[in-house]
């Protein structure tokens, strides 16, 4: 049985997406709780620089980004499927919209001053300040929606989701698929992390009922695990090669074996550097060494990430 380790934290929406997929597939997994702000030395020991949440570890393979994690979980547990044959293209396109356009509208709306104040109500002022400073640094250079603009967009998006649910239980029909989980998590954040502004969801009761159905899937069988244990597990692991499709697709003119860096296109540009050991149609794999974690294979999806030659 595959030893699945998810590195995440409780109020992270993209983590909730993956936890819900683990529930949908009925998988058992180990849970490592990571910090929500920098510094993250134990995260970086495994990822080599990528600092976003969540990431998935299987032995010495580290999978960054929830879209790639969904593909890996589908490979491990093909049924029930996240990618129904009749809607493969549409499901991925809708999922990408959920993870980007919808996500940013939901965040800008939910973290309006009233929502942010409620989220940090019980915390020391330094915690809120650290979070605000960390996210401001992460989003430098990005154009962020203002709450009033976000509210209008979010209302329209909720209406569109309601239209999709007209006459069916899930976005693509009778069963959940990857699009449901990607559209769900930004709304989950509003409903559960900033309930003080969650009345925006009340205008679309079919959306709330759909959210209840997804929540009822649960999170699978979770077992607590420590960062130290996960790093030791990486150092001791032998490689699960079956997960890699080795067909090389070169779009950049970089040979396998080149020193490269990978970073997200936007929001959190920390780079991971290493040796390019695979570049398939959909993902990159970098091999790197870490003093604690040993040889680590770090995987990124192509979509949303920038591959560069490492500076010499
Ligand atoms: N495209 C990424 C986005 C991940 C993301 O932005 N996660 C947020 C938390 S939900 C984050 O990384 N925040 C900063 C952090 O956790 O350090 C994915 O699908 O996994």
Comma- or semicolon-separated keywords:
312 residues, alpha/beta, ten-stranded mixed beta sheet, binds glutathione
Number of helices: 10
Cα-based radius of gyration, to the nearest Å: 19 Å
* Shape by Cα distribution: globular
Question: What letter string, H or E per element, gives the SSE order?
Answer: EHEHEEHHHHHHHEHEEEEE
Distance between the termini: 41 Å
- Estimate the mean pLDDT confidence: 96
Beta fraction of the residues?
A: 15-25%
Helix content: 40-55%
Which distinct ligands sit in these coordinates? Answer: glutathione
Kindly name the structural category.
alpha/beta
- Total number of strands: 10
How would a textbook summarize the main sheet? 10 strands, mixed
